Amino acid sequence: MKKYRCLCTIIMITLFGFGKVIADTSSKLDINRISRTVAYTLPVFHLNQLPLDTYISTNAFKQYLETLDPGKSYFLQSDIDKFNQQAFQLHKQLRQGDIHFATNAYTILMERMENRIDFTEVLLEKGFDTSIDETFTWDRSEIEWPQNQSEWDETWRKRIKNEYVGRIISKELDEQEAVEENSQDESENKMIVASDEEAEYDEAYEESLLSPEEFILEKYQQLHLTMKSFDQEMLLQRYLSAFSQVYDPHSDYLSPSGVEDFDINMKLSLVGIGAMLRPDDGAAKIVRLIPGGPAETDGRLKAGDKIIAVAQDDEEPVSILHWPLYKAVRLIRGEKDSKVVITVIPASDRNGTRTRKIDLVRDEVKLEEQAAKSELREIKTINGLTRRLGVITLPDFYADFKATNANKKDARRASSDVRRLIEELKKEQIEGLVIDLRNNGGGSLVEAIDIAGLFITSGPVVQVKERRGLQVLPDADPEINYKDPLIVLVNRLSASASEILAAALQDYGRAIIVGDEHTHGKGTVQTLMSLGDKKGSLKLTTAGFYRINGGSTQLRGVEPDIVIPSLLDVMEVGEKELDHALPWDTIRPALYRKSNTFEAWLPQLTNQSIERRKANPEFQNFLDRRDRLGERYESKTVSLLLSNRLAEAEAELELDELQESSFQDDESDSTNDLTLNETLHILTDWIDLEESTQPALLAPAS
Fold first, then answer.
1. Which pLDDT value is given to residue 128?
2. DSSP secondary structure string, 131-169?
3. What is the reported pTM?
4. What is the mean pLDDT of the chain?
5. Active-site positions?
6. Is 644 within the bounds of a domain?
7. Distance (Å) of CA 159 to CA 117, 346, 617, 639
8. What is the CATH number of the domain that holds 531?
9. CA angle, residues 68, 303, 177, in degrees to nearest 5
10. Could you list the residue range(s) of the whole structural domain that residue 9 is in?
11. What b-and-e string marks burial along 582-605, b requiring 16 or more CB atoms within 10 Å of the CB?
12. Which of 232, 404, 471, 578 has a CB 3.0–4.6 Å from the CB of 411, allowing a cystine?
């Protein structure tokens, strides 16, 4: 597929718009009853059972206003001061079914937005001097709302200038790319054949005809039209979710329409692009790509990218900025084999001024692409020996539940596939094994337990704490399928069931864990609770996972025994990056027996790995480029001087390539995977140490 890449301005952080929120006699939503039901359900059924009090009220107040104006650029501080008079009473109002605060805040927001659209027109007519050396603070999360009119206007002057500079650079880089492509075509003597067929709509070309001023104004006008299409149901979902997300970031209120589209993971994987999404500053942020889905197979979309617009085939794109997630999902989904073009802000672009278009063909997730795969690798040691090592890559803890429940012998399960692959690798006489769980976001808990059981005797694997009590879930099979050296490879995108497996094997001392500084840290379970007919549902956190050593996997995740630096280290990835994440805690350990076969060797194995990486020029080059990406992530400002901005843009394109190369896909050559290669060397060192401690076999005396 053609890879669209452009540097263009977008409306970085806009407001949440709804259309007029007025009494709608045709609405079937009983807002009063729904609000009261949510108010009484949250404190009773959520795992931490916090009372609905002023703490929840004031935090919901802040959460709601930040969803309306995440960039703190529409509301004035005087608006916030006025709103603040109700901040301590919202929980009481909610119990009475009263959400007038939400509608009042929205009404003022609409007034402010219309004012800013008019001001933007004035700014664009006046023009900008791009030779002035000044900066724009794109991250206003730690900045208060504008204190007065002059501060408000200055914030917007820099905001629109930032978009103006970005658009100029976009056109310049696009022209450079076009010249290079034309030059390449001429050098290859490609023949252009005339055709009578009507040319397809080319959005990039149409946009290139617009001046920067026209482009920016059109974006704001489109946003204004989008706002008018929003309704009362969306307002209700946003407001009630502000309360539920104070309890924890994975709890939400789903309106009746939202319930219909709740299972985003499954539905997207079946008739969409194969991505798990969550709202993030008005965009639909990609949390995880589903193995075997169109996006993961294509390789251009990455976790952390933010979707801001969607186009069907060759039609014009529709902005989804600040749409409820369920509406954005409906637009992304479509008929099998149809084309969808999504506009994203790359995860590497912190200030949000660059977008890229990616065209994908909707398809089902292919089970074969999702399934576990094995590979035989041979590693030469410094002593001239060749070690035969196995690698099993597990993208997901999958299971065909219908076939399993029907007791079908050929039911496809992750644990069955891993067991089969182990037996095949054992026939190849492997001396050690790596289980690669990088980017594995979880799946079936039963499969994680059964896979752990392949490497341990019977015993507890994970503890699950609910409001009603504690469950210890064991592996009941005493058979061990693999007894030799074992490494589990993880990263910050290894979550849920991946963390349970890695934690259990670490607690038993059965495997060395290698990877990022920690895994994702999602140690909770959500349940969808219906509130009744046409009332929607609450998605509530109702249970938590605990290791058999008593520690939670929540927030901290699993900390590897040997850490290998990663690109994800400098990106905001993981549970700890989410507001109101539940804290890490401990419970009583389960009864289990730990092995200490390699614990004494860990310092030596770690030092050998560090020295090997220091001596590897390719790895050092990766670290240098990663650190540059980290510097960009830490910066909260962007230059408005055109010459500086152009240099920054060219450097960012280079860093985008680094980000793309750092995520493995099915078609990539694993021999170029720096992290996996180093993991195999660690495994080789471990085998060497084991052999060196074994007593030599002496021939019998003659």
1. 95
2. TS--EEE---TTSPPP-SHHHHHHHHHHHHHHHHHHHHH
3. 0.81
4. 84
5. 496, 507, 522
6. no
7. 12, 20, 41, 11
8. 3.90.226.10
9. 95
10. 1-179+206-249
11. bebeeeeebebeeeeebeebeeeb
12. 404
